[in-house]
Amino acid sequence: MLKLDPSVSPESPRSGDRTSWIVVVGLRIATANTSIIHTSTDDLQVHGPLPLPTGRLWSSSTRPDSNDCGVRIGSRATSVHTMDVSPLLPAAATVLHHLPDPLSQPPRPVPSPRVNPNPTGRRTKAAITIASLNICGRGLVGDINAPSKWNTLNQFLRDKRVGLIALQETHLDDQALLQINNLYGRRLCVFNSPACENPTTSQGVALVLNREIVDTSSAVSTTLVPGRALHLDMNWHAGQRLSVLNVYAPNSKHEQLAFWQSVHEGLRQHGMTPDLILGDFNIVEEAIDRLPARTDDQTQVAALRDCLRPLSLIDGWRTTEPSTRDYTFPARGSSTRSRLDRIYLSETLFQNSYNWSIQTTGIPTDHRAILAAVSCEAAPHIGKGRWTMPLHLLHDPKFWKAVTPIALDFERQLADLKDHRNEATNPQILLHNLKLAVRAIAKKRIKDTVPRLEAELASSKRKLDLLTKKPTFDIDIAAQQESATLQDRICELEQRRYSRNRLTTSANYALNAERPTKYWSALNREKKPRDIIYKLVKPNTDPPLFESRSDRMAELARDYHDALQDIGITHCSAETRSTEINTATAFIHTHLRPDNVQYLSAPTTEKEVETALRRTAGGKATGVDGIPYEFWKACTQRYQCLSSDENPQFNALSFLTAVYNDFETHGMADSSHFTDGWMCPLYKKADRRDIANYRPITLLNSDYKLYTKVQATRLSNVIDDVVHPDQAGFIPRRHIETQTQTCLIMTDFAEAADMDGVIVALDQEKAYDKVTHDYLYAVLRKMRFPDAFISRVESLYASAHTVVIINGELSTPFRVRRGVRQGDPLSCLLFDLAIEPLACMLRASDLRGFDIPGVAERLVTKLFADDTSAFLRSTDKWSTLWLILDKWCVASKARFNDGKTEIIPIGSETYRHDVIESRLIDPRVPDANEKIPSSVHIARDGEPVRILGAWIGNKVDNVSVWTPTLQKIRAFVRRWQKCRPTLQGKKHIAQMGPAGMSQYLTVVQGMPKSVALEITTIIHDLMWGEGNRAPVALEHLYQPVSLGGIGLVDISARNEAVDLMWIKRYLTLDDNRPTWAYAMDALISKNAAAAAGPIASDQQLNTYLQSWDVNTSHTSSLPPYIKTMLNAGRKYNVSCGALRLSRRLREQLPIWYHLSGTTALRCLDNTARSQCLRTHHNVVTVLDLLRVQNKPYSPHTGNPTLHREHNRCPCWACRDDRLHGCVHPRLCRLTAGELLRRLPVEWNPLSLPNEDGLTLTHRRQEKNTIAMKEGGVLVFNPSVTARGGISEIFRVFVDPNCLQRPVAERSRRAVQVLDEGITAVVMGIPIQARQGTPTRTVEAPSGMCYIADHDGRNAMVTPADTDEPPSTRSGELAAAVYAATICPIDAPLTLICQSHFLKDALFRDLEQWEDDGWIHVPLSAHLRSLVGTLRARCAPTYLRPATRTTDKALLRAALQTAARLNSASPPTPVYPTVPNGFDLTGMRLATLTQASAYRGIRVLKQAPPRQSMLRILKQVLRAIPELEQPALSPTSVWKGIRQAEIRLPVCDFMWKALQGALKCGEYWAKIPGYDDRASCPVCQCVESLEHILLQCRAPGQHLVWALAEAIWLRKGLPWPRLSLPAVLRVGIWSWPKTLDKSLVDGVTRLWRILVSESIYLIWKLRCERVIGHAEDRLWSHCNTSIRARWTYAINARLTLDRAMAKARPPHPRLDEKRVLNTWSRTLADEDRLPADWHKRTWVLVGISPPPPEVDG
Fold first, then answer.
1. DSSP letters along 1228-1252, please?
2. What is the pairing mode between strands 950-952 and 945-947?
3. Strand 1575-1576 relative to strand 1581-1582: parallel, antiparallel, unpaired?
């Protein structure tokens, strides 16, 4: 199939087509067959409401996106004509050529007359552009970044939308072809035929297919004459094939005669009849094709014609242009020219060809290309489609200069409409007119925006065309010379244009590639032509008839979807219809709360519109108005950033809000077109010719979706009131995996619990399209939705119209009378409400379903939007289910498709077999009426059924389920490898492909270990190549960048993180606990470990809440996915990790097999009294035990006087216990008390410590919030008590040593003494602290704790045991830890902080850090020490920033004291220690995310660092005193090589260098047969990286560094003495403080570029010398080559910088000032360059001559 080519000229309009309405912005309306002449006007503008027809803008023959809809705004209009567009078909004519033919050869075939061979109408057939070009050699093909013919060819095919090009003189051998496929194989498919001899220097033909335009899947090539003739058979339109022959004829007469004879014989032998023969024929048939005109040897011409005559092929260009003189071989330096390159094609193809042209390309060759657009007779016509605003306009100042005044005028009109609203003039009409004006401005701006180079190129082509058409051109020598000059100029301009386009592409790639962006994804997605609908079956035709005209197919699809709304609708009385609806809605018993009713009724606010707009994603398809979300975002941003009294801007949010409020108040205006949409049919499966097999996606206007997004947000906030948890579709906090997990677990639960039944996976037919509106509104009213909300929904659908677009042709609109629109943000939630009555009916029915222990409601159904699963017990009836479904379908007019319904029998194996054999849900009761229809599929054991993306069934092979996913992953990785990514890019590929594509199935299905191993192997092969040994193991690549890795995804860790997320959901122990969790409880309880001892099965509630363990060995009957989950929880220590539990939480814990697990308590679990407490007193939790112990003796007074200590006590409590079956109430009460006494202190609710008043109240916390904003005094909250639900006690990654810790309890505070509090100034000390006279330098990270002058507790401190980089933060933190340690725990402590670090850490970030387990938190050890110390204090701790007037004196005194102490002794080390019982470890399970779980797992799985890496890193981290470079942290080094100025390939090189993974020296010494590569042949020593980069005497490094130094000295800075640590820390080089700050950025960028490019070039030169020329050990590069390559590399960076500074939005752009600061003073002839040199293309770096000794 072929991609649409909108660039080709369309054919003439159909006869009879007329324009019914043409909307001209700012002018009056013109109807068909009229002419409007508008004389010259100055600066025509649009003001006020535009005069529009009252009817709709669409009719049966017009399109809303026609270019006729618009006007030139802000320009002069001289004459605007609107004319009848009825086609005028030119009379057919036969073109004859009268040329001399000395040998009287038969004339070449003349085509039959064709109508309009060069159409200029609006419509065109789906076509491809074909081309032929002699490229005169292959050029460079080894480097995609180097200039080459194939780079330019690739650009040419992309720019001209060429689908097939025939190339001659390709000079490609197999190795070159492989390189081309590696570089360009994503876009191009190359078929090559090399010469038999010397294929790299002569001959060679190739056919190149553009994968984006043509189908390459079944193309087959055949070589007829090696290097001369290549045949290709390929897919064409509608199942037809296209036969193409590419020829390169010899020059000599003898060889050419033999060549055409060989071609003719080859075609005959293979039975080929080419439709196209194209190439370089090296002769012409007629004299007009040479300049000066002359005829070629007629023997050769006859041989060519003899070959063409049986094929009936025509010279398409000459037939189309019978008298035009244009040539494909304008020999440079000579006045002779020839049209040697031609395209011959069959008469049928010629009749469907157009756009014949000969064009100069930017490819370095002495030939020009011939091009034509060719379509198939069976190809459909392609319309213009719809117009969409290009996003680059949003960054065009001239566009906004035109839009802003018009938009402001509309805004003023809106303000004036408050008291004058009517149907013709209202906010909704204003919005519509505003959009029309914006569209017109955008269209005009697009036409006006023509680059100067393009304009000059077009002008030169026009001049050349006029010159060659002169009658005297053949004899006018001056004209011929002028034409040659013009032709050379055109060639030069074309090359400049392609160079510019390639540079722009390179800049965009550098700015966007190798990161997960839409740009990079688009570059690497699978290249395939866009789908074309060739024909559609006409309805009600037998045998079937087909429609192939695109406009009629659009109407056919329109009629289908319009008629679809009436299917199943029976006309009945209103009373009957009301009864049908009431039958379904009668089961609704949930209603909106009154406050939510008021919330939904409120008018839309500007804040809601702003929030909705902010949350919209960019890059979405637009509606019929063509205006994207980005336009409204840009308007909002301009208003918020630029608006002022002098420069007013359009307030889009206010304008839209006013329009929405008008709609809510007055309903939808008829001519606002607000709800119009266009439908895009997307093919699903089955017959492509049936429109029913296409999914109808409706694309709506952005302003419409913005409004419905606001309403959807409101609805999502209240929908929990009315929709049962059984429905999870698109509702916040409900997840699809809950439904799949329920189905998965029920297959195992039913068998384990011996409950037979079936799972019925129901399928609705076009669910969203069939729900009727009257039913939907009745459901909303039944649920007590407010009338205001219902009326809004009614208005949205009452005026909704849709057009269908097929192959770019628009149908007439039809009104949406039924269903909810797919593509509307509100639709999914509306459908949830519409299907909720069905779920209510199922739950209220007689269906038994499944009873799950612990769940109050039986399990009957689960839904995810329209995907419905029913759970039937063996005693349920099939007819009962379908009776309920039918009742709901009658009301909603929906329909369930029994042909796609599937059944999974669950329960015993015997039952499952019987269900399949009998087709009865209850095989024991044969009943023909209850037979499952034969159309319903019943799954056998081992056969999976797909439910919501999960594969459910009995005895399903989980590995085989993964096979299709693995195939997709392999194909994905193979495709992306063609872009030759670096390690950084490969990391993203692994994340998007192997990880991303397996994510969902892992969550809902689980990933077997063998599959995980296979995916890990795929990732290994992606990173290092298939079968290659990894220079760095994957375990090291998994590490984050800060630890020396690249952050590569670890599949096994990801899978374990998924398991931990299942544990989190399983341990959701509140009212929102999912049903499947209770079923899992039952399965787990049947598999208690033997070590747990005898356990009462009825009290095995939850292994995480009790002290018994689960058997997960091979002897366990648990399903594998549950074992995997429990093993992950055991491995990462999911347990109760809270420091202290509130009384409420202690009471909620189960008492039996209590979590404390003490022997004294366990011995009472299985006594007779314990059994009585469980059976007759319903004791489950500690709270139940307290209830038994504290049961009142009298129900009113609790008076104990009536109680007697014997078994026949007459008191009320004892009598009540005996009534419930207890024989010994007194003993049971005593046992309850004994159980409570045996509870450890930290678990006993009766042994809570006395409150010390330090826990902050809500009022104090509010004061803290205010103080955070205003800078006041903050009070630290030392509370460690876990509160909330029982789920809050669980943590993961808990330190096992902390489980035996004592309870976190603060000491009791002693008697308070006045003025006992301590105030300490804590601060980090800068690098130098001086007091008056010079003192010793203070090295960070030092901190100062200052209490008072000459106070013995003052101290200079430094954090110990930390790998963090030196900073004032670490010093301040160490000072705070020291102050908290020396301060008495019962004395108030006030910390005065110089920075906001401690304030933010203790009062803003602390809770989040503890929830995330302190993972990747800088200085986490000392922060935990500080928090634990402050919590252990029994006096309050205050913190305030140093903002008071007196604080400045304290800070000065602290600095002076620090200088004095520093000169006396070194700082005191502060070690991170946490008071016993106050170390909160692990992550909080309730807030766990998969990402945080993954990080925690990776920390525990962290591999020990490579020894080679440690050796190199140790050198790099050291300070370099002679270069004034300080010591560094490992994190800063690893992040330093990732600076933006260091190219990604160089990043890879430097990363491998730091890892010690480069192939040099000792690496080769360990490989037998390659040990000679270990030593340097020039220096006769073992190679090392330092030797290669800085010491080797071989040509290369010395010259490269000399060139770099010469450039650097131009900056006026000294060249440092380089060493290996110096060059590897290039990304974090420190500059002297004396350097002007304004120069630092430019100097830093230039240093990074020079050093990084130099070391990479030196390494490449060494590899070429040592490995590439291993056979010649003494071979080396010449200095000229080295100099040229270094110069090219640096100039390429300069050129790339300039291009990135001019990048066109929406791509990011490099700041022009940074480019200027980087390259200033380094350029050649800089003093003569213009100020805007960075915008010029000819600027180069000034390379000084190398030192004389280098050349020697």
1. HHHHHHHHHHHS-TTT-GGGPPPP-
2. antiparallel
3. antiparallel
pLDDT value at position 1670? 83
8 A C-beta contact, residue 693 and residue 819: no
Residue reference for tokens 């329909």: 895
The model's confidence at residue 1522, banded by pLDDT at 50, 70 and 90, is: confident
Q: Is the pTM of this model over 0.70?
A: yes
Average pLDDT over residues 802-813: 94
CA-to-CA distance for 1073 and 1535, rounded, in angstroms? 43
- CA neighbours closer than 13 Å in the CB half-sphere of residue 196: 5
1149-1182 pLDDT, tens digit each? 999 999 888 888 888 888 888 999 999 999 999 9
**Model confidence pLDDT, tens digit, residues 1230-1273:** 999 999 999 988 899 988 666 667 888 889 999 999 999 888 89
Contact at 8 Å (CB) between 1241 and 1140?
no
DSSP state string for 1237-1300:
HHS-TTT-GGGPPPP-S-SPPHHHHHHHHHHHHHT--EE-----EE-SSGGGGEEES--GGGGG
Q: Give one DSSP letter per residue of 289-358, joined into a string.
A: GEES--PPPHHHHHHHHHHHGGGTEEEHHHHHSSS----SEE-TTSS-EE--EEEEEEHHHHHTEEEEEE
Residue with tokens 């119209």: 801
Q: Tell me the two tokens of residue 1341.
A: 């990270």
pLDDT of residue 615: 93
**Inter-residue contact 198 to 237 (CB < 8 Å):** no
Place of tokens 């018993």: 589
**pLDDT (tens digit, 9 = 90+) per residue, 731-747?**
999 999 999 999 999 99
Rounded to an integer, what distance in angstroms lies between the CA atom of residue 214 and that of residue 1172? 80
Single-letter amino acid, residue 834: A
Element (H, E) at 814: strand 814-815
Contacts of 235 (CB under 8 A, 6+ apart): 1, 214, 215, 217, 218, 219, 241, 242
Q: Report the chain's mean pLDDT, rounded to a whole number.
A: 86
User: Could you tell me if residue 1569 is left (phi over 0), alpha (psi between -120 and 50 degrees) or otherwise beta?
Assistant: left
- Alpha-helical (H) ranges within 734-866 are 736-752, 767-770, 773-782, 787-798, 827-843
The predicted structure's pLDDT at residue 325: 87
Does 68 have pLDDT greater than 50? Answer: no
Determine whether 1438 is exposed, middle or buried from the number of CB atoms within 10 Å of its CB (0-12, 13-18, 19+). middle
Half-sphere exposure of 162 (CA within 13 A, CB side): 29
Question: Mean pLDDT throughout 551-560?
Answer: 94
Instruction: Categorise residue 1644: left if φ over 0, alpha if ψ from -120 to 50, beta otherwise.
Output: alpha
pLDDT confidence band for 118 (50 / 70 / 90)? very low
The encoded tokens of residue 840 equal 């209510």
360, 491 contact by CB (below 8 A) = yes
Beta-sheet strands, E only, within 837-895: 861-864, 867-873
Asked if 1594 and 1489 touch (Cβ cutoff 8 Å), the reply is no
d(CA 1, CA 215) in angstroms, rounded, equals 5
Contact (Cβ atoms closer than 8 angstroms) between residue 408 and residue 638: no
**C-alpha to C-alpha distance for 984 and 36, rounded to whole angstroms:** 61
Tell me the two tokens of residue 1390: 């006030």
**Residues found in the chain:** 1752
Other C-beta atoms within 10 Å of 247: how many?
28
| Paired sense of beta strands 205-210 and 162-168, if any | antiparallel
Asked, as a colleague might, if the bond just before 64 is cis with ω within 30 of 0, I would say: no
How do residues 692-708 score in pLDDT, each as one tens digit?
A: 899 888 999 999 999 99
SS3 state at 547: strand
Query: What share of residues in the chain are helix, strand, coil (percent, to 5)?
Result: 45, 10, 45
Quick one: pLDDT at residue 1477?
86
